[in-house]
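G., before I forget:
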Amino acid sequence: MSEVQKPESPARFGKQRILDAAKILTRWILGALFLYLGLKKTMHPEAFLKLVRQYDMVSNPMLLNAIAAGLPWFETFCGLLLLTGVAVRGAALMLLAMLIPFTLLILKRALAVASAQALAFCAVKFDCGCGMGEVLICHKLVENCVLMLLAGWLLTGGGRQFCARFTVFKRA
Amino acid sequence: VKSVLLEGLLVAFIGAVLAFAANALSPNGLSLTRDYFPGAERPHPLAAPATRPAAATAGTNTTQNPATEALAARLEAKGLHLAQGTQVQELFHDPRRDQNLVLFIDARNDEHYQEGHIPGAYQLDYYHPENYLPALLPLCQAAQQIVVYCNGGDCEDSELAATMLRDVGVPAEKLLVYGGGITECDKSGFPIEINSRNSGKLRAAAK
């Protein structure tokens, strides 16, 4: 490491080490989760295609196919980057770019289902295409918020141990 | 911030290139140009979530159910017909089935087909027809009656597969879509064959 570091107090140093360890663990958990969910979807992209279609987000068949064909592999790629520690902040940013719109789409569909079937919001259950089958949407939304917070936390840097190349462009 | 955004863009670009390359190389990959849902009118988008049990109950695939009525109307508009549970039972026991004059076609993927299908049913995975259609098409041309099914409930694959068969030249009047699908078969005590076609291995019926 070529970084110039100021001397730190033992307590502050200990806290930093805990934070770094937590960040590494977060990176591995997010990486493993996205790798698993992505690969699972790549096994049956037609099932994912049908689920993406349920959201009515695009009407063009080619665009729908592109989303269903590309997204699972893209998730896998981002998961792999996080696990190996390559372009960590870029990969975390991409996770956010996938999680935010999909969470909003899930919320929108869940509200529509709850209204159409006169169900309590937290009783709404469907396969959201997240790779975990049919889930209670309340739980899924909370889970996605946690994932977004964790991905956002990775954007702040730190926890560079066990990274093949934390930053692609230059070492900070 | 700028370097993070640039890194994100780089990840997005490389990831997208690799994702489409992986899809093209994968045996399960999707075609980017095919319209998988031609003339698609999606069945009851919000009112029939996967949580709801299959539309028809055992042995009674009646047109009382709104979802079944909607399916029947969609099929009628395409020149196809909905098969009732009793009609499927009769066709299953029809002696013409042994001569391939009555065909059962399972429109689900390999995994589901192997888990259980109507005994003697041919497989036609709607999303990968190139693997099945060349062998199946001559049989369909020669058959007098063809029953296409999938899981039942809100599964559209049987309807899509029947439409595809019609579009490749199989006369529409031969084609019946069994809306209750394998779920109804299972519940009504139909024999269910596992593994490959004519494996002879039967699965115990669901209670």
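Chain A is about 65% helix and 5% strand. The first strand of chain A starts at residue 125 and ends at 127.

More on Monday.
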